[in-house]
Each structure stands twice: as structure tokens, then as C-alpha cells.
From TrEMBL:
Family: Belongs to the DapA family.
Signal peptide: none
Coiled-coil residues: none
InterPro entries named in the record: Aldolase_TIM, DapA-like
Keyword line: Lyase
Protein name per UniProt: Dihydrodipicolinate synthase family protein
Species: Amycolatopsis albidoflavus
Pfam families for this protein: DHDPS
């Protein structure tokens, strides 16, 4: 089967690294490299530079290129799943740069255009995927209007589409889409991280994306192993431990999704807590709350 190694690795923990910044506000390439190396040495097999936890929409084109290049250098034998998006031309340019830099897959961000037709959604992804047939393509689906038949139709014209990061908060919808698309045709990734992973694994997901993995790789990897082995009781024990952290990230419509991860890394001495607008730094009270969570994990 084409892209067999990539398929196998996507059925795991798909890490979305943060993008650390210097005091001057630039991408801190040296720290970024250390963070990626930390993930890979912990056992992570797929790293996604320029994901949403990496503040993709707050980076300019040169910065996204820099993040991708640093990742391919630091990833060793792990697979690099490069985030691309915006208009078709920009996404194609980024995908070709990812190919030239050594990435073996691209993740196409959900279109942010306010008017998305299902036919246009297919055309958008086909236009990008067809320009890099050597790369595996993962779709980032956050639109509940997308049907399984749309995914099947896209795969017919873009055979390098191999995975779906499904981030619609509805396990029933997920299972319906997966069945209608052809369950075995794609790798199905729970795209809403650890708290949703048990529910999505119960209805067919085989991997999940993670921002928490930046902070505590072994917790995320342990959760995956338990879900893979159908140890749902054990998985829910971990779920209870990480719930306060993930709920901090999800507060106010995920406003602090990145801020919590970066502040945790800062408290561990791994990077600065700086984020770019429209994200914000945590308050002193929130930082104290986060410290208590990290302490309960034996990290702080």
C-alpha cells in the first residue's frame, strides 16, 4: 500500500509543537529544535510544524518555512507532517517547500474562507494534493457540512490523501462520515486532542493530535497505548489526570489553547511563554493554577 509507513505512524500520537519566540518576538529556532528533539526522543513518530498549536495563522511565510526547516532537521527518523493553508497558491508553494525540505506529508488546514461549498472544498484540496503527489496528505476537517462522500470523491482524484484529522466535536458524526467515506480508505485521527480521544477511539479513530505532548510526552503516549490496547479504564484514569490542564486550554472558546502549553513549558524552563495576538499571556492566577497541575504530575 502506498505511504504505508506514514499510515502506520499517523495511527499514533500526532504532535503539534509550539513555536517558541525570542524576547525580541522572532522565532527562536534553537529552542524550537530542542523542543522537537525532546518530542522525538520521547517516542513521538509524527511531528506537525505549523499547526494551530504552533500559531500557524500568526506566522508569516518566511517564519513557516523556518519552522518547517528546523523540524525536518531535528525530527531524525520521525515523520514530518507540514501544516499548509491559506489560498491555493500559497498552500501549494508551502507544500512544495515542505517536499524540498524533506517532509513526507502535509496537513492542509481547514479553509478559513467564509463561503465554503462542498464542491469547492473538494476542488481546494485536490488542487493542493495534486501538486505534491509524492507526499501523503492529511485533511483537517472542522466543518460538519463535509460528508463522507466528499472525502471519497476527493480521494478518487487525489490518491495521496491518506489521513483525516477530524475535529468536529461529535463522535456520532465522525463515525458516520468515516463509514460513508470508506473506513479503511483513510487513517482516522481524533483532531480534538486527549479529552476527546477515548470517545473517538470507541467509534473508530486510531490516532489523536496533541498539544499536551509538548509538556508531558509520556502522558500522551501512555494514553495512546491504553486506547490502542482497548484499556479504556486505564485510559480514563489518565483522562482524569489531564482534564484540568485541557480544560484550561479550552476555556473561553479555546482562547488559551496555546498560552497554557507555552506557559507550562516556561514553568519547566523549556521556552518563553510569549504568544502572539490574538492569543494572550496567562494571568498570575492562571499561572498559579497551572503550576498546581504540573506539580500534581510530578513535573514542577
Amino acid at each position: 500500500m502506498a505511504f504505508e509507513k506514514q499510515r502506520q505512524r499517523l495511527a499514533g500520537v500526532v504532535a503539534i509543537p509550539v513555536t517558541p519566540f525570542t524576547a525580541a518576538g522572532d522565532v527562536d529556532a534553537e529552542t524550537y529544535e530542542r523542543l522537537v528533539e525532546r518530542l522525538v526522543l520521547s517516542g513521538v513518530e509524527v511531528v506537525t510544524p505549523n499547526g494551530n498549536t504552533g500559531e500557524f495563522y500568526a506566522l508569516d511565510e518566511q517564519e513557516t518555512r523556518q519552522c518547517l526547516e528546523v523540524t525536518t532537521k531535528a525530527a531524525r527518523e520521525a515523520s514530518v507532517l507540514a501544516g499548509v493553508g491559506h489560498d491555493v497558491s500559497t498552500a501549494v508553494k508551502a507544500a512544495k517547500h515542505a517536499r524540498a525540505s524533506g517532509a513526507d506529508m502535509v496537513m492542509i488546514h481547514q479553509p478559513v474562507h467564509p463561503y465554503v461549498s462542498r464542491a469547492g472544498w473538494i476542488d481546494y484540496h485536490r488542487a493542493i494534493a495534486n501538486e505534491v503527489p509524492e507526499l501523503g496528505v492529511v485533511l483537517y476537517v472542522r466543518n460538519p457540512a463535509i460528508e463522507g462522500s466528499d472525502l471519497a470523491q476527493l480521494a478518487d482524484v487525489a490518491p495521496n490523501v491518506l489521513g483525516v484529522k477530524y475535529a468536529v466535536p461529535d463522535p456520532v458524526r465522525f463515525r458516520t462520515v468515516a463509514r460513508d467515506a470508506g473506513y479503511e480508505r483513510f487513517v482516522w485521527i481524533a483532531g480534538l486532542a486527549e479529552l476527546s480521544a477515548p470517545g473517538y477511539f470507541a467509534v473508530g479513530a486510531t490516532g489523536f493530535t496533541s498539544g499536551l505532548v509538548n509538556v508531558a510526552p509520556q502522558i500522551s503516549l501512555d494514553l495512546f497505548r491504553r486506547l490502542r490496547n482497548h484499556d479504556f479504564a486505564g485510559a480514563m484514569e489518565i483522562w482524569d489526570r489531564i482534564r484540568p490542564f485541557e480544560q484550561m486550554r479550552a476555556a473561553e472558546g479555546n482562547a488559551n489553547n496555546v498560552s497554557v502549553v507555552k506557559d507550562a513549558l516556561s514553568q519547566l524552563g523549556l521556552c518563553r511563554p510569549d504568544v502572539r495576538p490574538p492569543s494572550r499571556l496567562l494571568t498570575a492566577a492562571e499561572r498559579d493554577q497551572l503550576f498546581e497541575i504540573l506539580s500534581s504530575w510530578g513535573l514542577a
